[in-house]
Amino acid sequence: MKKFTKTVLALFAMSLIMSFAGIVNAQNKQELEKALEPFPKAAEGMVRHVIELKKKSDESLFKVEIVPGKVMSVDCNKHRLMGKIEEKDLQGWGYTYYEFTSNGQTTSTMMACNKPNENKFVSGQTLLVRYNSKLPIVIYAPQGYEIKYRIWKAGKDQSSDVK
User: Fold this and answer.
1) How far is CA 35 from CA 30, 31, 55, 133, 135, in A?
2) What kind and span of H or E run contains 128?
3) Is 42 helix (H, G, I), strand (E, B) or coil?
4) What pLDDT score was predicted for residue 25?
5) Cα separation, 30 vs 24, whole angstroms
6) CATH code of domain 40-153
7) Is the pLDDT assigned to residue 145 strictly greater than 80?
């Protein structure tokens, strides 16, 4: 009987936790949708990518590197996707969003390769932006392109030598 009671209580606790997690998830989704309202919808042929950042105690120590790119079949050379990221101002809001444009062309080193082509992520121009967990980072890119990102953290302050 005790085992049955413990099992029922455990199941009840798990269902309570699961329902609470669902409510929190729904609230976060609603908050994100509300935060994205001022941003324009993606134009035809474009996709809106959104980066949500976690709150940090001192966000001035962090930066976000936006890395646009595409998975492509490439040889053993070092490849770079041609394109650019432009910073755009959301008129009337003071917010910033970014637009990546590319025609899909790449540049590469010119070494002789004796290996078959492989599918690899080929990145384009990157952009370093400030870390701000209060607003999502919104990037528009053509369909078929990906937006990856890296979080950078500042190291300890160092002094230069006087010579």
Assistant:
1) 9, 6, 16, 12, 7
2) strand 127-130
3) coil
4) 42
5) 10
6) 2.60.40.550
7) yes
Q: Where are the domains of the chain?
A: 1-37, 40-153
Q: How far apart (Å, rounded) are the C-alpha atoms in residues 103 and 142?
A: 9
What is the token pair recorded at 155?
């190291």
For 42-91, how does the pLDDT look when each residue is reduced to its tens digit (9 = 90+)?
A: 999 999 999 999 999 999 999 999 999 999 999 999 999 999 999 999 88
Tokens of 86: 């432009």
Q: What is the pLDDT of residues 31-55, one digit of tens each?
A: 778 888 889 899 999 999 999 999 9
Segment 109-115 mean pLDDT: 89
Evaluate whether 138 touches 97 at the Cβ level (below 8 Å): yes
Rounded Cα distance, 81 and 160, in Å = 36
Residue 1's Cβ-count burial label (10 Å; 0-12, 13-18, 19+) is exposed
